[in-house]
Specification:
The protein is an alpha/beta fold and 342 residues long. The protein has one domain. Strands 3, 4, 5, 7, 10, 11 and 12 form a seven-stranded mixed β-sheet that branches. A two-stranded parallel ribbon has the order 1-2. A two-stranded antiparallel ribbon has the order 6-13. The chain starts with 7 loop residues before the first helix and ends in an 8-residue tail after the last helix. About 5% of the residues have low confidence. It is found in: Membrane. Keywords: Membrane, Transferase, Transmembrane, Transmembrane helix.
Length: 342
Amino acid sequence: MKNEAPYILEWVAHHLVIGFDHIVVLTNDCTDTTNAILKRLDVLGYVTFRPNKPGQGGVHRTAIRRALRLDVVRKAEWLYVTDADEFLNIHCGDHSVDALIAASGGDAVDVIMVPWRIFSFNKRVILRDSLVTQQFTDAEPTYEDGGAGRRFVKSLFRNKDVYHRVGLHNPHVRAEHATALTWALPGGLQASQLQGGNHAQPPFGDQFAQINHYAVRSAQAYLLKRYRGRANHESHVLDTGYWDRWNRGGCEDRTIQRYAALTQGLLDVFKADPVLARMHRKGFRWHKAKLVELLQDAAYATLYGKIAASDPALVVHKDRAIRESRALLSQDQDQTDDAPRA
């Protein structure tokens, strides 16, 4: 994470509510109250927090390597790598992580590749101190309704000694173990690693689970995202091109609000702690003050005017095309990830 103070408490509460036993968070170069919030959550036992100094391979690879060395991670049965703008949303059983595993093969499955569903800015311009999962309900269309024909995935996977590294989207298996794992989409439709790569193609299994990906949030939040920069692409300046690709909408999706009562209950517990409550308020004020500063810059002001007046994209043609060639999918797996990062 970097500079995610307004969003941390909701994100942690959500993932604990859906059934993860523990959350490990690494941060880099934060200038808001992100680190202070996470330190307090660590003291209270909700997360394990470690600052991350980038090393060989970039911010994300360094963070994952360091996380994998922690005892709490080494002892885990299942692992899942996610970002602060991603919320796992499970549609099957009791809507828990355990229900997703059971529906996707149970003891017989090793890797479950869950597809993204991108959410637009919902025509929301102002950065508000309210829940992301309630503010943003305008999602990209399903494939059947004309939406993307390939989608990025994030993987829930068994913690086995067969990986040569763990990536942002899936684990990478050592050659000698290439056929040792069972890969599946949500619901149990089997998929090979080659078939998946960083993406899935229809059928996605999204009737069983999806990852709500709030890649842009509000127009003002996007300006702060531009200021912060991208962890894996430090030289890439976020502009209207990035916004136009990831501001996808056209279909109302409120399914994640099934968790609202439980998430709010845990948020109330968090905010009853005076340190967490104060650091959350201070972090939100930092973001609002930074916005005032950024809007004095002509480049930010121009970008703000353009994106605030924009309409969500119904379809992004680059991602509508179905990748049917296994050769192309294999190449995808080795290419540098061009996905938006939190």
